Amino acid sequence: MSTMRTALALWLAAVALSASAAAPAPMLAPSAWLASLGETVLAPRYVRLHPAAGAPAAAADARCRGATDPATVLAAWRDASRALRQVSALPFGPALSSRVLRRIDFWPTRPKLIGAGIRRFSADPSDTARIGLPARGLPAIEALVFDAAGRPASLPRKSCDYLVWLATDVAQVLEPMPEAYRAWVAGLRAEEAPDEGALLVEALNILIGSTESFRLKYVDKPAERGLEAADAWRSGATTAHLKAYADGLAQALLGDADHRGFYDFLRGLGHLALAGRLTASVGAVSTALDHLPQPLSAARVETTQARLRALSEALLTLQRLLAEDVADALEVAVGFGESDGD
Amino acid sequence: MATDRSRRRLLAALPLVAMATRLRAGDDAAPALLTCWADDPKRPRRFHAGRPDRPDTALALPARGHDVLWHPSGDGSAVVVARRPGRFLMRWQVATGETLARFDTDDAGDDIRLEGHLCASADGQRLFVTESELIAGLGRLGVYDAATLERLTAWPCGGIGPHAVKRLGDGWVAVANGGVLTLPETGRLKRNLDRMDPSLTLIDDTDGRIIAQLRLPDPWMSIRHIAEGADGRLAVALQNEGGPSRPLLALAERGGPLRYADANAEQQARCGGYAGDVLALPGGFAVSCTTAGTTAIWAADGRFLAAHATPRVCALTRAGDRWMATGDGGDVWLGGADLMAAPRHWRRTEALDNHAVPA
C-alpha cells in the first residue's frame, strides 16, 4: 500500500469513529473532495475569468479611441465581474495564498482614492506601484464606466487612460491563476500524502468564512443602509452577483453531477442527518435569493430590504450549521466562533 | 496642557475612587464594570457593551466587542472596539446607551480589520487602535480622531497580529505584536506558527516612529497584553502557541530586555498556556490564566507569589488598590488588599467578555 493510501486509510478510520452510523456512501478524503472541486469548478472558472477580466481593457482602449460603442465596455465589465463573483466564495489554495481575490476586488469602492489614482497615473504612468488596491480592481472599473443611473459614464481622457491601465492590471493579476489551480489539483492527488486533517480544517473554515462574508458584506449592508450599499449597484447587477456568489458556495458545499461536494464528504462519514440539513440550508438560501427582485431596484426599497433580511437569516442559519453543528461533529477547530478568545 | 492632563487624570481616576468608596462601605453587590458581554459564552447570539448591572442602557453591538475605554474627554462616554471580524469602533454615552460616533472598516481608505484594543493619546485628542491590513497581514496602529472616530492615518507597528495597545507613562505607546498571522478568509486559523515573530513595540505617538522592539528568546510565546508598573516596568501576558512550557508573564525594566518572570514547573502548570490579560498592582502584577482557570500574582521583581482559582477568568482591572477579574461564565472576583488572600466572588448571568474597566 502506498504512503498516501496508508495515511488516507488511517485518517478516514480516525474521523469515522465520530460518526454515528456505518458509512452508507463511499468515504471521501478532503483531498479528493478539494481536487474534484478544483478540477471541475475552480480551474475552469479561472480559465474563463482571466480572459473575461482582460476584455474590459481592450474594450476600454477601443472606447478611448472612439472605435467602439460605450455599451461594449459595460458588457465586458458585466461579464468579467460575474465571472469573478462565481469564484468569490471559493478562496481555496492559490487564491488564498496569492490574495488574488482581495487584490482585484476592493469593495466598497473609494471614489476619492480612485480620483487620486487617476491623478497619479496622469502625472506619471510609470508610477503605478504607489496606486493602492482601493483604487484598483473590477469594482473600481464599474465606478468609472457606469454612472449612478447605470448608463455609460462620461470618460475624460485621463480617466480613460487610467481605465485601460486598471483593466490591464486586473488581467495581469489573474494571469497565473489557471495554471496555479491545475498545479494545486495535481498536488492534492500527488503520491505524497496530503495532511488530510489540515485540509479539512482549512476548507471548513473557508466555507464558514465565505458564508459569513456573503452575509455581512453583500447582504446586510444593503439591507441596513440602502441599495447604494450593494455590490454592483451602479450596473444593476447586484442580484446576479449575489446568485453567482451563492452558486460558488453551493458548488463547494453540495457538489453536482460532475464533482463531489462537502455533502458527499459528510455522507461518507455517516453524517446523514447533517448532510440532509446542509442540503436544506443551502436550499433555503437559494429560495431567499429567488425572492430578490432582478434588478434589485425593481421593487420598492422596503420590500427589497425585507427580502435581503430574509436572505441574511438563511445565511446565518447556514453559517451556524457549519460553524457549530458540523464543526462539532467533525471535531474541527473553527476560526469563526463568536466567543473565541483574546 | 498640564492643567488638561491633571483634569484628565482626575477624571480617569474618578471611577476607581467611587468604587473604592463603595467597597469600603461594605456594598455586597458585585463591583460595577464597564465591559462587553454576550448572552451565551459558547453560542452567543446577542452582544452588548456598557454596564451589565444596567442592561437597559447597554449599547447593542453588531458583533462581539472586545476592549472598552472611558472617553478621554471625561464626558461619560466610552469607546468600544471590535475583535474578529473587527469591523467597528463605536463611541456611546454610557448612561443612556446613545451612539455618539461610529467607524466602520468600510470607511477606511484601505483593506483593514480592527484587532480589538485601543488607547488614548496623551492629550486625549486621538485614539490608537490596533489594526491589520488584509493582504499580507501586517500590523498597524490606526490613529483616530477621539471625538468623531474619523480615521486619520495608520502607522506600521513592526509585526504581525497586533493585539493590545497601551499608552505608557512617558507618552510612548506600546503595541503587543502577537506574531500570529490570521486571514479573514479563515478566521482565527493560525497560518504561520512555524515562523512567528512576536514583539513588544514602543512607538512615538507624535509621529509613529518605532522607538524600540523587545523580543523574548522563544518565538512561540505570543505577546498579547501589556501592563505598566508604577516604576515604569513593563509587563506582558503571553500565550503559548505550541512550544515547551514557559511562564505566562515577562517583564522589562525601561530600556532593558524582556525576560520571563519566575515560575517553576508546578507554577507553570497551574497557569497553563494561555493568558488573557495582565494588570499592574501595587507591588506586582496579576495575570489571568484563562484556560487554566487561575489568576496568578507575581511580585514586581518577577517572583511568583500566588495562584488563585478563578475558573474561565479573563478580564482584569483595578478596584482601588485591589485586583478585579471577570470570566465568560459571568463570574466576578475581587481580590483583597493582601495579594495572597483568596478573592471574593459573585456570579452574573452574562457571558462577560475579555476586558473591563471600572464603571
Task: Briefly characterize the structure.
The complex is a heterodimer of chains A (342) and B (359). Chain A is mainly alpha-helical and 342 residues long. Chain A has helices at 3-16, 30-64, 70-88, 94-98, 100-103, 111-123, 138-145, 157-174, 177-188, 196-225, 238-254, 262-268, 272-290, 301-330.
Tag the structure with descriptive keywords.
heterodimer, A: 342 residues, mainly alpha, A middle domain of Talin 1, 68% helix, B: 359 residues, mainly beta, Neuraminidase, four-stranded antiparallel beta sheet, disordered N terminus
Distance between the termini of chain B: 26 Å
Number of helices of chain B: 2
Strand content of chain B: over 45%
Q: How many runs of DSSP E, i.e. beta strands of chain A?
A: 0
- What's the helix count of chain A? 14
Could you characterize the architecture of this molecule?
Chain A has helices at 3-16, 30-64, 70-88, 94-98, 100-103, 111-123, 138-145, 157-174, 177-188, 196-225, 238-254, 262-268, 272-290, 301-330. Chain A has 342 residues and is an all-alpha fold. Chain A has one domain (3-330): Up-down Bundle (A middle domain of Talin 1), CATH 1.20.1420.20. Mean pLDDT of chain A is 91; it is low at 1-5. By secondary structure, chain B is mostly beta strands. The longest helix of chain B has 23 residues, at 2-24. In chain B, the strands form 7 sheets. Chain B has a 4-stranded antiparallel beta sheet with strand order 3-2-1-28. A 4-stranded antiparallel beta sheet of chain B has the order 4-5-6-7, with no helix packed on it. Chain B has a domain at 62-214: Neuraminidase. Chain B is globular, with a radius of gyration of 19 Å. Chain B has helices at 2-24, 265-271, and strands spanning 33-38, 47-50, 59-61, 65-70, 77-82, 88-93, 98-104, 112-120, 126-133, 138-145, 151-160, 162-167, 173-177, 199-203, 210-214, 221-228, 234-240, 249-252, 259-260, 275-281, 284-289, 294-299, 304-309, 313-319, 322-327, 331-334, 344-347, 351-358. The A-B interface holds A 91, 96, 99, 102-103, 106, 108, 110, 112-113, 132-134, 201-202, 205-206, 208-210, 212-213, 216, 221, 320, 324, 333-342 and B 38, 40-44, 47, 63-64, 66, 83-85, 87, 106, 109-111, 116, 134-136, 163, 182-189, 224, 274, 276, 290, 314, 328, 351, 354.
